[in-house]
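Submission checklist for the structure archive. All mandatory fields must be present; incomplete records are returned to the submitter.

[x] Identifier: Fucosyltransferase
[x] Organism: Daphnia galeata
[x] Residue count: 442
[x] Sequence attached
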Amino acid sequence: MSKSKSKMNPSLRIVLQRISAIAVRSIPTRFSSVFNFVGCLAMCYLLVTAISFVSRNNNDNRSIETNEIVQEDIQIAEEIVDIKKEMESPPKTILYWTPYYNRTDFTVGLGQDPFIKFGCKVTNCIATSDRKLLNQSDAVIFHALQVNSRDLPAHRHPHQRFIFFLYETIPNTSIPCVGKCLPSSQYKPHYFNWTMTHRRDSDVYVAEPYGAIAPKYWTLPNQLPDELPPDTLPANPAVLLNRNYPHLANRTKMVAWFASHCPTHSQREDYVKELSNFIEVDIYGKCGTMECLPRNSHRCESLLDNYKFYLAAENSLCPDYVSEKFYRALTNDIVPIVYGGADYTQYAPPHSFINIADFKSPKDLADYLKLLDTNDALYMEYFQWKKHYAVVRSPKKGWCDLCAKLNDPNLEKKIKSYEDVAEWWVRKLPCYPGSSFLLSHS
């Protein structure tokens, strides 16, 4: 009986601790009395933890389990203390100075609700588009494609972060923009001190309009091979050695490509034209002879069910630029053929995509695709990653990171700025011309 009790108490205690932590997060921050409540809760929790620690240590045979539980206790206690500190500090104000295209809320939302809805660890932020709050704002976000040089704040206070925000990339020697480009000379030196873009060296990395891949932690085995659940037999050798894939019967077409912009800096259209000489490629949109409307709709994505491969070819070969084309293919159970300037091994699990850069010529790529087409087992290996990973469309982690960094006291003391943001964005690491790639892969 005592042994059963010792096994049960830690689990019960951890559940109660986590419930209390959730309860703390849900308490409105506008009531000052909550500070005393949270402090009391944290102290009571630490007291219970200390008592249970002493009790558990009386049993030397369970020292390893005790140590693991104590470490988790400390982590949860620290989290409660962090929540208390967050609730005591005033919220950080994030001002959208420009709209994001036609959205004044940057498609994210206003107030504190977005950070709560996104499940951010730190939610002590309020987003607004009210320019009257400029002087008290902690972060001011400028969508670089819509910046008007005659409509910029003249002064940045020491505590403020002026954020260069951009998802798109245009290979140019000036800052990317719509219509007439703004030369970097129109920005004052050191005007921006933070960046928030799809590049992973940004101060805040954000991939919201494109996608991400997240691990399914609960599916990862402790070792390979993993033990089987009770009353489960191993795989039948007769089935393993005679596999068939009936669901591939509908995939009777080879390569699909959706493209609405031609010509492009990457010259992807030229590569696809050459590839078409060796394998069937159906081109939808302005770059081809086929059409699907409305574009980017579920109806158009369902067309991919008939294809085995999808060309995720970017319009420019720029650092860290991986657009929604890639994640569209991964979501729809079709093998993406990537063409871009990013290191795709950092974006997706091994053997989940085919990279054009790995083949000497379009003909070599076509030969490999034909091999996969005639060997279902080889083709299906490109989907093994889905056992342990999932595609996230419109990930919000970047906005959570922004709020967390604004509340990080260590970053408040760090002084930095960009003398010329165009130097960082374009000239320091330029996009690779498609013409240069084609010369070496033809």
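[x] Structure attached
Curator remark: The chain is about 35% helix and 15% strand. The CA atoms of residues 137 and 214 lie 33 Å apart.
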